[in-house]
């Protein structure tokens, strides 16, 4: 499995009762694959992993893995706070056929880097499935330091990291630290896709790809084909969407945007509230910009 290109950080569709919507899930998957994503990443931040039960996570992962049916790799979020619980969930996702496991750092309690290393090594030893580390310190309070990546990149089935710190120097440091290892670095910040590619990242895990899939994919494809001007234009063009994402709590704006294009992904799960009419109006203006 090559970990590269634009991997969509997919939202989790819900119905009006805030239960998983299987039909909408399948509809969104077909749109993402048709528009050229290189993979589908589920149960991340925009996938609302933090408000889903373990049973729901396993059920949703099965729907996605079965629907994708090996057309692109499926990256499944299996991170959490307790090492033993993460091991148990990772093993369940492995049995379902996940192509890779995404592993967010434990959160809420500040951990030492030695504790993070021990956590990840214990999980990696419990499964054969490749693991992608997930660094998003703004949300978790725990940053994966460059020296920690240097150590973890030596573990055979820890094959990469998604960095959502928003700091290009972090991505650059990870790339340097893992040099010589079979280890990739992915941008988790949609604003940095092209800059990350230019310094050696192999791709991005992008939430904006739920909506403007083909545009995000064109950043990568134009870069690979050497058309840096077109890649930069596409990178700049995603700012229309990013500008409205701040109008509500994650992932309410993104889900409303996708829903207004005809895929009924539903609202974010409570306690995230429905959007005000003014925000919805600005979303519609954004959709008009993209002719969606």
Automatic annotation (TrEMBL):
Keyword Metal-binding on this protein?
no
Extract the Gene3D superfamilies matched here. Aldolase class I
Where in or outside the cell it occurs: the entry states:
Cytoplasm
| Annotated site residue numbers, Part of a proton relay during catalysis | 45
Oxidoreductase as UniProt keyword:
no
Gene Ontology molecular-function annotations: 4-hydroxy-tetrahydrodipicolinate synthase activity
- PROSITE patterns per the UniProt record, alphabetical: DHDPS_2
Q: Which Enzyme Commission number(s) are listed?
A: 4.3.3.7
User: Part of which pathway?
Assistant: Amino-acid biosynthesis; L-lysine biosynthesis via DAP pathway; (S)-tetrahydrodipicolinate from L-aspartate: step 3/4
Q: Which InterPro entries match?
A: Aldolase_TIM (IPR013785), DapA (IPR005263), DapA-like (IPR002220), Schiff_base-form_aldolases_AS (IPR020625)
Q: Which UniProt keywords apply?
A: Amino-acid biosynthesis, Cytoplasm, Diaminopimelate biosynthesis, Lyase, Lysine biosynthesis, Schiff base
What is annotated as the active site?
134, 162
Subunit structure, as described in the record: Homotetramer; dimer of dimers.
UniProt record similarity statement:
Belongs to the DapA family.
This chain belongs to the protein called 4-hydroxy-tetrahydrodipicolinate synthase
């Amino acid at each position: 499995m090559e970990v590269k290109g634009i991997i969509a950080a997919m939202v989790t569709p819900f119905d009006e009762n805030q239960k998983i919507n299987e039909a909408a899930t399948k509809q969104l998957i077909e749109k993402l694959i048709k528009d050229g994503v290189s993979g589908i990443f589920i149960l991340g931040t925009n996938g609302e992993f933090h408000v889903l039960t373990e049973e729901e996570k396993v059920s949703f992962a099965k729907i996605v893995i079965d629907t994708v049916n090996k057309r692109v790799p499926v990256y499944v979020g299996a991170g959490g706070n307790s090492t033993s619980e993460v091991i148990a969930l990772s093993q369940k996702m492995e049995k379902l056929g996940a192509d890779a496991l995404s592993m967010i750092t434990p959160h809420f309690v500040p951990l030492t880097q030695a504790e993070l290393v021990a956590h990840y090594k214990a999980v990696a030893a419990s499964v054969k499935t490749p693991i992608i580390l997930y660094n998003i310190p703004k949300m978790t309070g725990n940053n994966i330091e460059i020296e920690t990546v240097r150590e973890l990149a030596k573990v055979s089935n820890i094959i990469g990291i998604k960095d959502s710190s928003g700091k290009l120097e972090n991505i650059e440091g990870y790339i340097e630290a893992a040099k010589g290892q079979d280890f990739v670095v992915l941008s988790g910040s949609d604003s940095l896709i092209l800059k990350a590619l230019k310094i050696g990242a192999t791709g991005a895990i992008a939430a904006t790809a739920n909506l403007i899939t083909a545009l995000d994919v064109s950043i990568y494809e134009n870069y690979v084909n050497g058309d840096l001007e077109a890649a930069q234009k596409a990178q700049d063009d995603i700012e229309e969407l990013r500008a409205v994402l701040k109008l509500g709590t994650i992932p309410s704006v993104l889900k409303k945007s996708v829903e207004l294009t005809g895929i009924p992904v539903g609202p974010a799960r409570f306690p995230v509230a429905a959007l005000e009419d003014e925000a919805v109006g600005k979303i519609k203006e954004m959709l008009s910009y993209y002719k969606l």
